[in-house]
Amino acid sequence: MLEKSERPWGRYEVLQESTNYKVKSIYVNPGQRLSYQRHQKRAEHWFVTQGSGEVTIEGVISQVSLGSVIDIAVNQLHRISNTGDVELIFIEVQTGTYFGEDDIERIEDDFGR
Questions:
Q1: Handedness of CA 74, 65, 110, 56 (dihedral sign)
Q2: Model-level pTM?
């Protein structure tokens, strides 16, 4: 594992990275959600491996559970929420030209970031 980071909503672990992609395992605590955000330099592909929740993409809310696949284009507003009572886990594959945490434009955030 390359990097671990605790967040107010849960945590993530970087599993693999190169110059044109990054792979993370993301763990969202029950009742928590990530910020409503977008990225200028990367797209994301999510695969849910545990739990259930809701994904919001450009204002459209969809239910997700084990095996759900979500594609998020560059510049697309998105968020995932854990609406279940167990940890929601998904694998995130980022593709693009830059993968730094500073390529997050938060539109709405429960934690004031």
A1: positive
A2: 0.94
Q: How many of the other CB atoms lie within 10 Å of CB of 63?
A: 10
Q: Give the pLDDT confidence of 73-86 residue by residue, as tens digits.
A: 999 999 999 999 99
Contact 89, 13 (CB under 8 A): no
Q: C-alpha distances in angstroms, 68 versus 54, 77, 91? A: 11, 18, 11
Rounded Cα gap, residues 25 and 54, in angstroms: 17
| Cβ atoms of 19 and 13 closer than 8 Å | no
Looking at domain 3-104, its CATH superfamily turns out to be Jelly Rolls (2.60.120.10)
